[in-house]
Amino acid sequence: MAIAIRTATVNDPVGIHARPAAEFAQAATASGCAVTIAKQGGNAVNAGSILSVMGLGIKQGDTIEITVNGDNAEAVTNNLISTLIEN
């Protein structure tokens, strides 16, 4: 299994609110990989949990770190970053 770790800056003016958190959590779960998300320097949470993702309180300008452990980790990470950037 492969591991991919990527950081990104959240550009959405309202941060990661309910809709993007739900889409991100669904994509993380559908990937079949173990996925976590954290604010840079903070504790990682299960990215498949909408409430956990929203509980991070990610705002515009925050840097997040996504870690994917599983088959096709790089591709899954790219997809998850796209999910957040498109919102």
UniProtKB/TrEMBL annotation:
PROSITE patterns the record matches: PTS_HPR_DOM, PTS_HPR_HIS
Coiled coil location: none
This protein's record includes keyword Cytoplasm: yes
InterPro entries to which the protein is assigned, alphabetical: HPr (IPR050399), HPr-like (IPR000032), HPr-like_sf (IPR035895), PTS_HPr_His_P_site (IPR001020)
Location of the protein in the cell: Cytoplasm
Origin: domain of life: Bacteria
Pfam families: PTS-HPr
Domain HPr positions: 3-87
Cytoplasm in keyword set: yes
Swiss-Prot/TrEMBL keywords: Cytoplasm, Phosphotransferase system
Main location: cytoplasm
Known function: General (non sugar-specific) component of the phosphoenolpyruvate-dependent sugar phosphotransferase system (sugar PTS). This major carbohydrate active-transport system catalyzes the phosphorylation of incoming sugar substrates concomitantly with their translocation across the cell membrane. The phosphoryl group from phosphoenolpyruvate (PEP) is transferred to the phosphoryl carrier protein HPr by enzyme I. Phospho-HPr then transfers it to the PTS EIIA domain.
Designated name of the protein: Phosphocarrier protein HPr
Species in which this protein is naturally found: Bifidobacterium thermacidophilum
